[in-house]
From TrEMBL:
This is AB hydrolase-1 domain-containing protein. GO terms for molecular function: carboxylic ester hydrolase activity; lysophosphatidic acid acyltransferase activity. Residues 67-307 form the AB hydrolase-1 domain. PANTHER family: ALPHA_BETA-HYDROLASES SUPERFAMILY PROTEIN (PTHR42886:SF42), RE40534P-RELATED (PTHR42886). It comes from the Eukaryota. SUPFAM superfamilies: alpha/beta-Hydrolases. GO terms for biological process: lipid homeostasis; phosphatidic acid biosynthetic process. InterPro entries: AB_hydrolase_1 (IPR000073), AB_hydrolase_fold (IPR029058).
């Protein structure tokens, strides 16, 4: 019996048999990458793409922290594995990219949505608690950034039955949904850019990006990205998001994310100048929430880690990571 099947059988005692469907558009791992499956508290299995560095610094005072990546809606671990995992592993960092439940190669819960802000954050926390030996840097994109924010708000919370939330070395919020959610973004678009508001609503809420190359490019990427590359990512996005990440009504009702007064955690708030989804006001809100100045990368779109100039954001993060030693 394989390890994968063994996990499935043992999990039957805790949950009804879950659905695991491989994508019909598979993501082929790059050299040095491996795919593992981590069993989360619900008994389901979460895909993790791992790329470890051959030259990581292990010194206790100046060690390079492990990097744990959390994707947003319509994405999965592969979105980090394409460019940023090779980049950061070559720069001396062990990298772990997670696929949240119902996304990528992860198992699907027996529900209409993949989870809540709380359950997704708990799954991330459980992975870190059981697999990462030293405090990592948590990196979240878009709605994944909101999950990271909830993780931060849970640090040291004695009210939680099981405080799985381990100490972090830092956090990076990439084109993140702000702490209050996406409601403010939508209303600003409706009032100031009604055409853009219709496009972004049709593209994301109605999944219009799945059937239109031009709309997919406008939503996630720069104009300079070639259509055949957009099509490849479009297919992966469609296959990766078999069920919604959240129930947005319930999510917005649970927001804003709790504040963390007097927190010493270092946070980098990183935005993209050509972001079609998160506007400058949303970026500013997130930065003010953590008491930092936002960094906005020029000539890059929402999917900063996949865009034509993906190295721009990666270089900013690398410089920030090196500053953690100071």
């Amino acid at each position: 019996m394989s390890m994968r099947m063994g996990i499935c059988v043992s999990s039957l005692l805790k949950v009804s048999c879950y659905s695991h469907k491989k994508k019909s558009v598979p993501y082929n791992l790059k050299e040095g990458q491996s795919r593992i499956f981590h069993e989360v508290p619900s008994g389901l299995n979460m895909e993790v793409i791992v790329q470890k560095s051959r030259n990581v610094v292990e010194d206790e005072k100046h060690y390079n922290p492990p990097l744990v990546f959390v994707h947003g809606s319509y994405h999965a671990a592969w979105c980090w594995a394409q460019n940023w995992l090779p980049f950061f592993s070559q720069s001396g960092y062990h990298c772990y990219a997670l696929s949240l439940l119902g996304q990528g190669e992860s198992d699907e819960p027996n529900d209409t949505v993949a989870g809540t802000l709380q359950t997704h954050a708990r799954d991330v926390a459980d992975f870190i608690h059981r697999n990462i030996q030293s405090p990592p840097v948590l990196i979240g994109h878009s709605f994944g950034g909101l999950i990271v924010q909830y993780y931060i708000s849970s640090l040291g919370n004695d009210k939680l039955k099981e405080n799985l939330y381990q100490e972090l070395r830092g956090a990076v919020l990439v084109c993140s949904v702000p702490p209050s959610g996406n409601g403010g973004l939508v209303w600003r678009y409706l009032l100031s850019k009604p055409v853009a508001a219709f496009k972004v609503t049709y593209s994301l809420a109605a999944k219009g990006f799945q059937s239109s190359i031009s709309l997919c490019k406008e939503t996630f990427f720069s104009d300079t990205m070639e259509d055949h590359v957009v099509k490849r990512y479009q297919e992966l996005m469609k296959e990766s998001s078999r069920m919604p990440l959240f129930d947005l009504r319930k999510l917005n009702a649970s927001l804003p994310v709790p504040s963390v007064p007097n927190s010493s955690l270092k946070v980098l708030v990183l935005g993209a100048n050509n972001d079609f989804i998160v506007d400058a006001e949303g970026l500013k809100e997130t930065a003010e929430f953590y008491g930092v100045s936002p960094v906005c990368v020029e000539a890059v779109a929402h999917d900063m880690m996949l865009d034509t100039s993906w190295e721009k954001g990666a270089e900013v993060i690398l410089s920030w990571l090196k500053s953690l030693h100071n």
